[in-house]
Amino acid sequence: MAKFSLTGYETGASDLGAIVPVGGVYQMPFGNSPNDVLTRHRAALEGVDLFPASRIMEAGNRFEDAIRIWFEDEFNCQVEIVTQGYRSERCNLVASLDGIIRMPQSSTWELIDYKGQSWTFDGDAVIDFKSPTYAPNDPEAANYMLQLQGQMDATGLNWGILAQLDRARCEWTISVFQRHNGVIQAIHQAVNTFWEHMANDTNYPPIDSKEASRLIAGNRKAPAHDLTEGIDDTFTDEQRDDLITLANTICKAKAETKAAQKVEENAKKSIMDIIGGVEKVTLPGAKISWSTTEYKAQPEKITPAKPASTGRRFSVKEIT
Predict the structure, then answer these.
(1) In terms of DSSP H, where are the helices of the chain?
(2) Per residue in 188-211, pLDDT tens?
(3) Which of 160, 249, 285, 317 has its CB 3.0 to 4.6 Å from that of 177, i.e. a possible disulfide?
(4) 67 vs 73: CA distance, rounded Å
(5) Are strands 99-101 and 125-130 parallel, antiparallel or unpaired?
(6) Mean of the per-residue pLDDT values for the chain?
(7) What's this model's pTM, rounded to 2 decimal places?
(8) What pairing do the DSSP bridges indicate for beta strands 11-12 and 93-95?
């Protein structure tokens, strides 16, 4: 697929799966958080590409013409090749399309999706082709849906088709999406939020503690803030109370986890003592497997070099 959006200056439809929350939760497609997308766009402004095409992505681009022709032949349609990006009228979104299916004026066109549902189209449809190695586990995954909804918003069309031809079986997995104004409104809001962060050089709240350690720089001051007796000039009373509660929560969770692991280990050892050489046992509500596994010899591995980086290490220890 030709890419017509300009990273660093415009949001592409493929970014939407990472920056649009669904039910308040970011989808993290391919492990990418909203802050990862921010980082990629900011790097692009400096002329650095942090997301070069992988071999799998390159294969999809090179096979696209053949996949499109196969789709046209098999489903009796004509896919218009797109040579420009389509810009949303409501936000800084530019959609690159694999194609548009123009519906005939004098007849209808039908398509059966992966669930066996038949669709009759009453207007043109955007189409996106993918060529995964294996058939997708979730053909209507939220990141796919958001990408197609963004393409429909940018083109003003009401239909979107995701056609995936897996390379393992060469079978089609067809998903059909109808324009959903609520989702499109959420896309507008998310894209506007993204470009506010770009303009203000701010980040999204960290997705998890790992991202927080990467994004939130420390003050590199070794002495601890002593809040055992009260607050200091850095934290408020409310923050101190919250820190006490949260730290105690972590200490309690760690103790409960350790106790649960000990119980599990003792039970595992007792089961092994009982079943001995038996490898599999089925019980009411549980299956036990202690099967023999052959491990092949492994060559010595050399750890590849890594560039220097800065992060923070988090821990909470109970004081007794």
Answers:
(1) 16-19, 34-45, 55-75, 142-155, 181-200, 209-215, 237-275
(2) 999 999 999 999 999 999 999 999
(3) 160
(4) 10
(5) antiparallel
(6) 92
(7) 0.81
(8) parallel
